[in-house]
Amino acid sequence: MPARKRTSLALSNEQLLQLYEDMSMLRAFDEKISERCIRGEIPGLIHLGVGEEAVAVGVSAALQPQDKMVSTHRAHSHFLARGADPKAFMAELYGKATGCCGGKAGSMHLADLDIGFLAANGVVGGGLPLAVGAALGQRILGSDWVTLCFFGDGANNNGAFHESLNLAAVWDLPVVFLCENNGYGISQSIHKQQRVANVADRAPSYGIPAEIIDGNDVLEVYETVRRAVDKARAGGGPTLIEAKTYRTTGHYVGDSESYRSEEEVAEWQTKDPIVKFEKVLRRKKLLSKALKSEIEERITALVEEATDFAVHSPALDPAAALTHVYCEGGV
Amino acid sequence: MSLSPRDLKQLFRRLLLIRRFEEEAFRLAVAGKFANYHGGMGQEAIPAGVCYGLKPTDNTMITHRGLGVLLTRGVPVGEIFAGLYAKASCPTRGRHPIFHMAAPDLGILAGTTMVGSVIPLATGAALAARIQGTSDVTISFFGDGSVNRGDFHEGINLGAVRKLPIVYFCENNFYAKSMPLEASTAGGSIISRAQGYGLPGEVVDGNDVVAVYEATQRAVARARAGEGPTLIECLTYRWTPHSTAGDREFARTDEELEAWKAKCPILRLRQQLIEAGHASAEELDAVDVEIRHEVAAGVEFAEAAPYAAPEVALENVYL
Amino acid sequence: MARMSYAEALNEAHCIAMRDDSRVFTLGEDIGEYGGIYRVTKGLQAEFGEQRVLDTPISEIAITGAAVGAALVGSRPILEIGFVDFVGTCWDQVFNQAAKFSYMTDGRASVPLVIRMACGAGLGYGVHHSQSLEAWFTHVPGLKVVMPATPADAKGLMLAAIDDPNPVVFLEHKFLYEVKDEVPDGRYTVPLGKARVAREGGDVTIVSWSGAVPWALKAAEQAAAEGIECEVLDLRSLVPLDEDAIVASVEKTGRLIVCHEACTTGGFGAEVVARVVARAFDFLDSEPLRVAAPDIPVPNSLALEAVYLGTRERLLEAVRGIVS
Question: ipTM of this predicted complex?
Fold first, then answer.
């Protein structure tokens, strides 16, 4: 692993503050979603990314507009960080026609091709082969995008992981595999699911370079992903990055969390990525109390606006359930 | 664990039996006597070496090229030929190709023709041995073509995390049908995958029956002792095409084939036996004559055997 | 017009599509220099190169998902899975991923993908290499299901499938690959969802597809010698289904036999019968019949496989029975 210089990829002060604001925004959205889900306003299975915001934000900051992103069931943060319209996002969770997918996708199947967000996924490991395909498509079409593929630790024991990493490696495709290792596949600790300690331990099997990083350190995420993405874009092939992180809320809204101790959760709360980054900004004297309040106000307004939009969007016409089973016309 | 001269002669006999069977089966398939044959000529040391030290209750699961295991674990020659002819006088009664043959009394669990699918199945057999508290070990055979399938990954991970009594045994003959190993398999080698599961791995000269036997015995001992699986990669080469169903071998060169033929596992053991003074050339030739008779009798048996009655097609869909 | 085999016609369709559109490419196991198990991709790699005719590892999950992902970003993949029996290994990518994109994005995304798979028995290939699983795919909204019976249709339907913006499951019968017939030159498409009247007749409608069409034609010929005129309808695609053509024929003949190679229970024949009963019940002079395989796996021995394929012989009896 090459030595890392903390600010080598030189983000401006504005960009650093943007990372902070983005992470705080993701947190605020998930907190709002949790509240509305418990109130029964948002239906379905909702997987929050609370505690993992640094990964989503660091990754997104490292991508170019033409890059593609493939996500998982825990997609809210990825989607928003990538630049999705918050109103269309909230409306989608509320199952409204104004949602980004007309209410048909919901939380687990978010997609917005205009921002290169190809697909979240309800199937663990389901996105890995799709990401390899997006990278293959890049080669066929002669474009210059890189595909960033999120997956969780739970997916790395699935056959799709094995086949996808091998294929990406043997064809040298421009894809970055980003494992958000939060230590649990639902209730199962990773150590009960595999004998090797790290997901990254598998990369040498495929001849893929790998890095293990602190997924709660947004700058480390940004810098590592940026290097991997630049390398892939330059024809250097795939990289596997394992970001160690933790979801401080349950697997889904309503999870009993009986499989882990309060101490463990509390310990990870002390490593909260937003608090951690806030300290960095304070040390740099970039974030005053006044500015922090300003940011908080902006975020609150954004979340309220998006939520109101979703709540007040008209109910869907049930006839929409029958449309777009097939795509009409040419492509 | 070390092999006596008697053991070596036994191994020689087994190697030769597989070879003579392979030759005859290939000839008959090319002559159109049966539909399709996936020959393992050149790879005989693997089934012979792996199975030699197994207990009858140890389980083996084979691939589409698993004839040698059937023979060495004791399925009668005639029955296997009958299987190739799809005649009634074999364990499948002609319903399925020989690689689906099950002979539980001989430790042969039915194989599958789905490349790689055998790995999770064999892992299940090992899991059952663990749950039932037996000391039986399962050998999961698979080819190099299997190693990029999800079944390989999921099966081996499960065996590893639960430390199951199983040996994952890769017969690497370098070509999956027409696909050369290096074009399909990232990471440089099959054995390098063992580290990704936290397993010990061993590469073995698959044309050296003694080396195959010894490596298997080490892995089986580990498995029986509760130390979990081992991944063994045996390097070998098939002398005949992928199958007799019109397979072309443009990716392989004549030089490559000749180089591997020079490493014939049977000639090697024969020389070893003669040089060590364990057997004379005449003695070994006599074994060959005896085996040729056995194989010929097997063909005769199969030729004379009846086809299954049509009703058989409708039986055993459910138990 | 040129006389060529079903496999050659498919090959020509690939050539035309790949010459016309650089977004079209094909991937699969042993499809490069080897030319595919059935020679459908023969010579393609020589013409279009290794970047557009990709030999893949035996990794059906990854290659199917990669085809879906590549389609999603705007290329036009044709994926070969050598045997439909293997689809279980990558089923998630077919029915959960490929089939769902249009719907789950409310029409914002599309997966213009063709998945070619060989189906059918008759060659002694046994339980893992002989099945006809078309009914599985028809049960998944979002997939189209195409099953050509002739070389000309193979080419025209393949070109239509490549043009289609949806995932199309293209099932080729392995017994038909070597069948030769006249095939029109150049580019043409046979629209999906348009059945073909393979033989006209006024007494009995036989609905069939893929490898069962030749059986139906043979039975019709034999029946004609006995004075029974059968109308043979080749569906060409099961999804979309040309229900109008089926209903029109049954309204004419008053008798329906659905003949397919796959097992009877849960087979697509049940769907055809249900649709006819719903729309043309009053026209039926006798109860509709399904003539299909017994509910067994496909055995290896040709002697036993013949039992599975007994539909061929039972069809003529069924025709005689339904008019008596």
Answer: 0.91
